[in-house]
Amino acid sequence: MAKKPKKQAGGTPATVALTAAGTPFTVHSYDHDPASPSYGEEAAEALGVPPARVFKTLVADVDGALTVAVVPVAGQLDLKALASAVGGKRAVMADPAAAERTTGYVRGGISPLGQRKRLPTVLDASAWEHETICVSAGRRGLEVELAAEALRTLTSAVRAPIARA
Predict the structure, then answer these.
(1) What's the pTM value of the predicted model, to 2 decimals?
(2) Environment class of residue 1 by beta-carbon count within 10 Å: exposed (0-12), middle (13-18) or buried (19+)?
């Protein structure tokens, strides 16, 4: 019987997955304000990073299947484009409780990495415009910075234009 990987002190499933894969990444933490209207914009401001380089992780329901969309915090998810990217017809935002239960993360801290159940993932094509991007590390106030291609590889993500301004 295989042993479960040990969780690192202070680590999240996302950082444990990155470490296990040998992927270069940097962790950034900041004091999260629960009253902040936008977790992603709060992260960009706290880290001093342009909002176009900070990506939010959204969970949508595409034709009955939960699907992860990773888009810049400066934009919005185009649900039609997401459905098309995974060969679906219709997408709606997922029930927050279902997203939390399936990913193992809380809303505002959902990471595309280290999810309880690996979901189909689509990464917005704009991610490749930057040397590195930031995504949630699995809890509010914690981000990981890594190359877009590394994120695509680790999540088996489809690369597609799914964000709109």
Answers:
(1) 0.91
(2) exposed
The token duo for 165 is: 């301004």
Mean pLDDT in consecutive groups of 10 residues from the start of the chain, 165 residues: 40 95 95 85 92 96 98 96 98 97 94 96 98 96 97 98 94
What is the widest separation between alpha-carbon atoms in the chain?
49
- CB burial class (10 A; 0-12, 13-18, 19+) of residue 41? middle
Q: How many CA atoms lie within 13 A of 126 on its CB side?
A: 21
Residue 132 backbone phi and psi in degrees, to 5? -140, 160
Neighbours of 62 (CB within 10 A): 23
